[in-house]
Amino acid sequence: NGITVAGENRQGNEINQLSDPWGLCVDDDQTIYVADTSTHRIVEWKRGATSGQVVAGGNGQGSGDHQLNYPEDVIIDKETDSLIICDRSNGRVVRWPRRNGTSGETIISNIYCWGLTMDEIVSPLVPFRRGHRTTLPFERSSPTS
Questions:
Q1: What is the CATH number of the domain that holds 45?
Q2: What's the whole-number mean pLDDT along residues 57-62?
Q3: 10 in a domain, yes or no?
Q4: Which residues partner with 113 through β-bridges?
């Protein structure tokens, strides 16, 4: 049996609820970041919390730099201390600052994105389903020590 760690108060759009959570990631402090698809937001749940905090989107469904449209996945880019978000219905991948970010920056556009992962040198990899390929949003760099 599993333990509910986020959104145990039925489906909804309140800060203690989730609506169609899709992708998630966990940072080194055991904070969980959830792509809450139907509420067009990324919600941060600190370990032991009974409610979350919106850290990206949450400004209604849309295509503005401060909005998301059915985000499907989220990963952490430790190098830039930001979230990389698969913003599916906007056809883009967005980099959003983890601390006090009010808007994101599109790093890949015109992409049909369903998921994200990081490679061994900390570059986000994006499976491009319709193009049958994997995309790097920017030039690779060497890992830092």
A1: 2.120.10.30
A2: 95
A3: no
A4: 128
CA-wise closest residue to 56 among 89, 22, 98: 98
For the entire predicted model, the pTM comes to: 0.81
Sign of CA dihedral 31, 115, 59, 66: positive
Work out whether the CA dihedral 78, 34, 14, 5 comes out positive or negative: negative
Q: What type of residue sits at position 33?
A: Y
CA–CA distance, 80 with 134 (Å, rounded to integer): 21
CA separation, residue 48 to residues 31, 53, 68, 145 (Å): 9, 13, 27, 32
The tally of domains found in the chain comes to: 1
- pLDDT computed for residue 64 by the predictor: 96
Select from 127, 144, 44, 32 the least CA-distant residue to 88: 127
What b/e string do you get for 92-118 counting C-beta neighbours within 10 Å, with b at 16 or more?
Answer: bbbbbbbeebeebebbbeebebebbeb
Residue 65: what residue type? D
The pLDDT score that the predictor gives to residue 66 is 97
CB hemisphere CA count around 129 (13 angstroms): 8
